Amino acid sequence: MTLGYARVSTQGQNLDSQNDALAAAGAQRIFTDRVTGKLRNRPELDKMIDQLRAGDVVVVTKYDRLARSLKDLLEIVEAIAAKGAGFRSLAEEIDTTTPAGRLVFHVFGSIAQFERERITERTREGLEAARRRGRVGGRPRALSPDQASEARRMRDQDGRRISEIALLFKVSQDTIRRV
Which end of the chain is more exposed for a tag (fewer CB within 10 A), N or C? Predict the structure, then answer.
């Protein structure tokens, strides 16, 4: 039996294109998750792996739908293989039911992991360079240092209600609690 697995990271994303591609590839049953790939706890993936039988093939549109890291990808494909099943990725044309497909799978997985690590490294380098130039990312503070000091004084010394101070400064009550 051919089983499909589709995943999107957020509830707002659409699974239609993955489902269509998996159906066209012959998936007789499709399991879908709407969770980030970083989380290993994916209920439908776990259910699919539990139901695998020898000779089954798991199909995904791209292998990053199955896992975000090489380690995770290898563990999942190993769990699939332990059940006697194969793995196919449509975009990368990987098919672990053949020796050549297993080799290509490991090479592609390594390249993808390398690229993710390089992206992370370049992002970190860019942020460090910006900080050296005095630019700090993130959301601007809701209150200036003087406003924060005044809000703190009103809260702690004058005993004014947090809701009143928040309304006065036009910020949330949590902002006043944090000052």
Answer: N
